[in-house]
Amino acid sequence: MSRLYDISQLMRAGMPVWPGDTSFAHEPTWVLDGQCPVNVSRLTLSTHTGTHADAPSHYAVDGQAIEGVDLAPYLGPCVVLDMRHAGPVVQPDHLLPVLPARVERVLLRTWERFPQDGWRSDFTTIAPESIDLLAERGARLIGVDSPSLDPEVDSRLLAHWRVHQHGMAILEGLVLDAVPPGHYELIALPLKLAGADASPVRALLRELDG
């Protein structure tokens, strides 16, 4: 059986969220006991909590909401590339030595160890020119282990807009610590949330046979 890698963050109280965004909370509404036959819980969270897919409506006024996006980019062959050496911004020169001639989905590892216990503002971002390069090679999706393609304090969202121009999909907040660079099958479908600007995902990588 092919090995599966779970590359999703654990959703839990106290997990890091974007500064000022909604904290995650999970609390019981019904409790299984002598008076009640089931457990039922309430969740409070941001659409961008943990490992998530951005919808175009996240940053574009006329962008599509998450329930209407094409699901095909979130399922299929992908390549994981090690960009831990890239520094603050992944530039095309960092990608060229390891990027296959043709790709469909590209996941970039930038953290030495994913920061599970606290927010880090010094995450690696992606140059717009790198998005262009990925699109030229056929990429339909880019995924990163950082919380955003763009810097925390830069409201221009240049990488996001370049993704939008190329019609690509975005995954953010992946956990790639245990995943060797190479080729996999990606499974990371967003929830069907009406009007939402993003969706948490349960992201998996499956080793390819052979």
Would you give an account of this structure?
The protein has 210 residues and is of the alpha/beta class. It contains three helices and 13 strands. It has a nine-stranded mixed sheet with strand order 1-13-11-5-7-9-10-4-12, covered by helices on one side. The chain has a two-stranded antiparallel ribbon with strand order 2-3. Helix 2 runs parallel beside helix 3. The protein is globular, with a radius of gyration of 18 Å.
Highlighted features:
single chain; 210 residues; alpha/beta; Glucose Oxidase, domain 1; 9-stranded mixed β-sheet; two-stranded antiparallel ribbon; 26% strand
The gist of it:
With 210 residues, this protein is an alpha/beta fold. The chain is 10% helix and 26% strand.
Q: What's the pLDDT, averaged over the residues? A: 97
Shape annotation: globular
Total helical elements: 3
Strand order of the largest sheet: 1-13-11-5-7-9-10-4-12
The CATH architecture category equals 3-Layer(bba) Sandwich
| Structural class by helix and strand composition | alpha/beta
How many strands?
13
**Percentage of residues assigned to helices:** 10-25%
Mind telling me the C-alpha Rg? Answer: 18 Å
Level-1 CATH class name: Alpha Beta
Q: Which stretches are low in confidence, meaning pLDDT under 50 for 5 or more residues running?
A: none
**CATH 4th-level superfamily:** Putative cyclase
Question: What is the N-to-C order of secondary-structure elements (H for helix, E for strand)?
Answer: EEEEEEHEEHEHEEEE
Give the number of domains.
1
State the separation between the terminal residues, measured CA to CA: 11 Å
Largest β sheet strand count, sense and barrel closure: 9 strands, mixed
